[in-house]
């Protein structure tokens, strides 16, 4: 039965573990002469709201942007630099300033914080994914607030999340959060860019996969941030498809959002939560190649829950080993699913198109098993056509 707005907001209010993401523009000054510098008053207001939730029994994980923005002014920049090396230098200075202020601000309420710097590679391998989970879980057990950011100082473009919106959705999966709250300088999702006449805030969306048209979503309005509304909606789609209700609102509304008030835009979860392994396969693993399948296999995968058999495969793209995460694609290159391959890519080429009897006769019974077992296969969510 579909979730209602009241049920969704009640679930957010009752969340035992909640991930809150705040963007750079919500933590930095927009005034001339101090634009891009860390705004301590904004940060203190956010911390007050988060601390109130912690004192009411919630376990809070904060995914915070702002390290690059906080380092701009101290290094003499008047705007966000275009080159990655300068941004990494700003992050090296700003990360320390940002964490020092968080420690001071949370200390007013007797709450400790712990810094967790992540890169995309921390989610690409299941063992590192588990290690991140264990670290943050232990911090929460000890009553601390993990403060998560991408490791902007050292990470390269090839292994970047690209924005903290995407990172926050993965963190929500990692810590098995009961809710995800995205805070920015916009107080919700609108029917058109908020500056346009007649634009209306949308209070509730039941299905973030089907009900949002990407063409109507405006981009970032901030000169100090990297994310925009598109990246926030992508994060919502990942989280709600993982069974996590979401709320998108402004940082000014952080307190009311955590109290379940009717602010921002609430997004209902699309299904019950799956196992952490399936969540990793679907949203955090880094596919190392592709298994190409025929139309019959595509139809079977999309209409049921079968394993992918060799008889439905056409070949592979790339080279990979057994146990690697891979895409499942149709003959036109459309991504259908992600999964964990049971065979090396060379073996799949030999198995392609053969039925079980042929495999046992020519290759041996040890090869007569699925290319990807159904427990290791997760369909790609796509908007309804």
Q: Summarize model confidence as the mean pLDDT.
A: 85
Number of separate strands: 13
Radius of gyration: 22 Å
User: Number of domains in the coordinates?
Assistant: 2
Order of helices and strands: HEHEHHEHHEHEEHEHEHEHEEEHHE
Q: Strand share of the residues?
A: 15-25%
Provide the CATH superfamily of the largest domain.
Acetylglutamate kinase-like
Side by side, the strands of the main sheet go 3-4-2-1-5-7-8-6
| Class by alpha and beta content | alpha/beta
Distance between the termini: 22 Å
Helix content: 25-40%
TL;DR of this structure?
The protein is of the alpha/beta class. It has helices at residues 5-13, 40-55, 67-72, 84-107, 121-124, 126-141, 164-174, 229-241, 254-258, 276-284, 295-303, 345-351, 356-362; strands spanning 17-22, 59-64, 113-118, 145-150, 179-184, 204-205, 246-250, 265-267, 290-293, 313-317, 325-329, 335-340, 377-379.
Keywords:
13 helices; Archaeosine Trna-guanine Transglycosylase, Chain: A, domain 4; about 375 residues; 5-stranded mixed β-sheet; Carbamate kinase; 8-stranded mixed β-sheet; alpha/beta
């Amino acid at each position: 039965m579909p979730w209602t707005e009241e049920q969704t907001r009640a679930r957010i209010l009752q969340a035992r573990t909640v991930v809150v993401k705040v963007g750079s523009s919500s933590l930095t000054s927009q005034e001339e002469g101090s634009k891009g510098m860390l705004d301590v008053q904004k940060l203190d207001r956010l911390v007050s709201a988060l601390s109130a939730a912690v004192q009411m029994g919630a376990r809070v994980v904060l995914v915070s942007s702002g390290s690059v923005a906080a380092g701009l002014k101290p290094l003499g920049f008047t705007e966000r630099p275009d080159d990655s090396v300068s941004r990494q230098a700003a992050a090296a200075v700003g990360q320390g300033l940002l964490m020092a202020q968080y420690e001071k601000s949370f200390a007013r309420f007797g709450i400790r914080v712990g810094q967790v710097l992540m890169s995309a590679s921390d989610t690409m391998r299941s063992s590192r994914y588990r290690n991140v989970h264990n670290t943050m879980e232990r911090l929460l057990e000890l009553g601390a607030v993990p403060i998560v950011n991408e490791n902007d100082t050292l990470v390269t473009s090839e292994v970047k999340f690209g924005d903290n919106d995407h990172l926050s959705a993965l963190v929500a999966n990692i810590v098995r959060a009961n809710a995800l709250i995205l805070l920015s300088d916009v107080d919700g999702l609108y029917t058109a860019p908020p500056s346009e006449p007649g634009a209306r805030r949308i209070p509730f969306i039941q299905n973030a996969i089907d009900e949002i048209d990407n063409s109507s979503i405006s981009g970032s309005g901030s000169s100090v941030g990297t994310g925009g509304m598109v990246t926030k909606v992508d994060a919502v789609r990942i989280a709600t498809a993982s069974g996590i209700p979401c709320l998108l609102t402004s940082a000014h509304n952080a307190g009311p959002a955590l109290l379940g008030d009717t602010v921002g835009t609430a997004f209902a979860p699309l299904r019950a939560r799956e196992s952490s392994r399936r969540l990793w396969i679907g949203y955090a693993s880094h596919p190392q190649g592709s298994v190409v399948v025929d139309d019959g296999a595509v139809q079977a995968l999309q209409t049921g829950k079968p394993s992918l058999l060799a008889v439905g495969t056409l070949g592979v793209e790339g080279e990979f080993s057994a146990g690697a995460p891979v895409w499942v694609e149709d003959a036109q290159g459309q991504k259908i699913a992600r999964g964990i391959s049971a065979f090396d890519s060379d073996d799949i080429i030999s198995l392609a198109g053969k039925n079980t009897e042929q495999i046992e006769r020519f290759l041996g019974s040890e090869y007569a098993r699925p290319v990807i077992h159904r427990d290791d296969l997760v369909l790609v969510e796509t908007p309804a056509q």
